[in-house]
Each structure stands twice: as structure tokens, then as C-alpha cells.
């Protein structure tokens, strides 16, 4: 891809400094904007994050995450089966995000024409539905692998200037490589969406890793899996392409916790530290 940007570097010491282990809760992951945090509590416990309930699995597992613009402090409340209540203040590291200028995109993908409106409603609805699953699967516990071989060409959180026009921030991690090179599942899970020709995303696959954690991969040249299929970590799901809103071959990898968009780069770093 022909991006012009200042590359975002996250040092090992930065990630390590944000890795949390809270007494009596034993949190793992990264307490930062875009970070994912997980742990285990006693069976039957309840968890609230700033007053909102967090799913707790039958074995006490839980996971939650922070969006790009998350506040610098949240309250984590754990209520055990016997009524004991633990309240912990979590400090969420704030990050500075760069500007990425992307030129040479198909004009229709930057300013979609009116005739695309109805189709885009259907496509975005399918994406929302695919990300809405909150099963008891814990495939995310095994960590994440880079879904393609190639250089990082776009980063989470960066403000996007597309063909000279300001647009929404980028919420994925772009990996550039030749057309036709394999794209693999970053973690095991169930394929909730598989389509070859979305208007902006091109070939798209969404994999459900459990507890609302999902991977979305798009701009693919081919999609080699079907909805409902269980895929293993590292299994090929498609190939790198330049379909949709793209000016060169790459795969755009996104991680969600429900509707909260997370930073895949941090998940790779967390996985390497397991």
C-alpha cells in the first residue's frame, strides 16, 4: 500500500508497563486505549465495568476491552457468589495516534454514491450481527498470531485522510503482501460471516473467538471458508487482495469485544508474552 504516515512504535517496555496483575483479581493483558484485559474469578461471581455487566463464563473466565477513546479511569467491581464486593480502580493508559494519508483509492469508496446506500445497510447489518455473539468459547485465551506474512502498513487509531478528505480513524492493523498470499485465522473460532464482495471491505471474514471477542479480516482476494465453519488458529481462510477501499494488496485485521474496537497489535504483543 502507498500510505504516507509516521509509524506508531510500541516498545516492549511500554507494553510490559501496561500489563496488569491486580491483587485478588489477577488481570492479564494491556490496560490502555485499544487494549484487551482478561482473567478468572470464583465461579458464580458477577463483574461490572463502570456499572455495565461483563460476561462471566461457567469457569469464572471473563474478558473486556477499551476503545480508542476510552477514559483514563474505570471502576471494576467483582461481586462473589456469597455477596463479597471488591471495587478496583483501573487506570487506562492514554495514547497518541498518528495521521495516515492514503491516496489513490477508488473515489466511490471514499464518498459512497447514493445507490450504494441500501446495500451498505445490509452489509453493515451483517457485520454487527456477526460481532454480537457472546458464547462461552474461550479460544481467545490461547492468544493471537499475525494473520499474514508482510509489513505493517497501517495502524489502529490513526486518523485517516483518504484521497485528501478527512475520514474516521482506522480501527485495524494493515498487513501488506502480494495478491494471493495466504491469510490465516489469528485464533481459533467459528466463522460468523464469510463474503467475497462487500463494497468497501471486498472479501471479508469474521471469526468468533468467544465471549464477544472476534476477528474481522477484509480486502481479501478470495474467501476460502464458509459461515458456521470451525477454524483452527493458523488455518488458511483466504488470500491477500486489494478489493474494496484499498489502494494496494493487504489484509486489514480488526479485533472487537462486542462493539468495542481493539488494537490487534497489542494482542500480538500480549500473546508473545504468554
Number of domains: 2
Number of helices: 4
Q: What percent strand?
A: 35-45%
Shape: globular
Number of strands: 22
Oligomeric state as shown: single chain
Distance between the termini: 32 Å
Characterization of the model:
- The protein has about 270 residues and is mainly β.
- The chain has 2 domains: about 10-90, Immunoglobulin-like (Sandwich), CATH 2.60.40; about 95-270, Glucose Permease (Domain IIA) (Distorted Sandwich).
- About 15% of the residues lie in helices and about 40% in strands.
- It contains 4 helices and 22 strands.
- The chain has helices at about 10-20, 105-110, 115-130, 265-270, and strands at about 5, 30, 35-40, 45-50, 50-55, 60-65, 75-80, 85-90, 100, 150-155, 160, 165, 175, 180-185, 190-200, 200-210, 215-220, 220-225, 230, 235-240, 250-255, 260.
- Strands 10, 13, 15, 16, 17, 19, 21 and 22 form an 8-stranded antiparallel beta sheet that branches.
- It is globular.
- Mean pLDDT is about 90; it is low at about 1-25.
